[in-house]
Amino acid sequence: MDFTILAEGLAFPEGPVWMDDGSVVVCEIRAGRISRIRADGTRQTIATPGGGPNGAAIGPDGALYVCNNGGFEWTEPGGLMLPGGAAADYETGRIERIDLATGKVERLYTEVDGRRLSGPNDLVFAADGSFWFTDLGKHFAHHTDHGGLYWAKPDGSAIRCAVPGPNMNGIGLSPDGGTLYAALTVIGDLLAFDVTGPGTVAPSAFDALPGRVVARFGPRVLLDSLAVLADGRIAQATLVAEPGIATVDPATGAYAITPFPDLLTTNIALGGADRRDAAICLSTTGRLALARWPDPGLALAFGA
Fold first, then answer.
1. How many CB atoms lie within 10 A of CB 284?
2. On the chain, which terminus has fewer CB atoms closer than 10 Å, C or N?
3. Burial 83-104 (b: 16+ CB within 10 A, else e)
4. pTM listed for this prediction
């Protein structure tokens, strides 16, 4: 697929968000920074919340809501940026609200039921204004904090763990809002959950095996963020063995991967007038790519 590079020199970009003016807001995880990339490639720093801003979405009030993983340690083999375990100054994972006009950062949630958030990763807003988010967990030298699937209100008044345990990454809602999709990074499974109410999903036969498998990827194909297409298919970012964006049919599990030249092609966001403008994060090389996607993305509940 043909693409152009809109921006280079980014500090591990993730969580792209299309804006009404045609700019793209990105999280620069390594720098702890939220940046706006304009159509001419110029950049503006919106806020520097620190930690590791990872995934983002526009909420019903027009603010930017951010999953902050708390920060990583970094290595640079062959000049590539690779995230590792928890940063030396890791404090906690959190959900943050950022005022796009002023850059003010507000911490909405750092824990649920007395247990701290480990590494919030990505989020999606439902039509009622609440949001779902994943927690990828956090790796330490001798243990791993586990994450799960969570739901919360954007005013800071309520948060709930819907599915504890598995460390999940990308997240999205079906066009009718009745199915929630989440990606298991290391296992390589794309899961589906039936939404039964605010913050609740249908129970699974085994707690250790939540949801149902929509698609299972090959050996050492890791999964990152995802976007839902207007026709209900899923654009799933794939890593390592086959880096790119996979288009997945949730009804059959069939998929085809469009390759991109970065070991960690982590995110895709679809916007523009016809929702076919694709912003794709080539994260280890610090680049934001633009392409014309064959099919339009699903219109998000809020934002562009």
1. 22
2. N
3. beebbeebebbbbbbbebeeee
4. 0.97
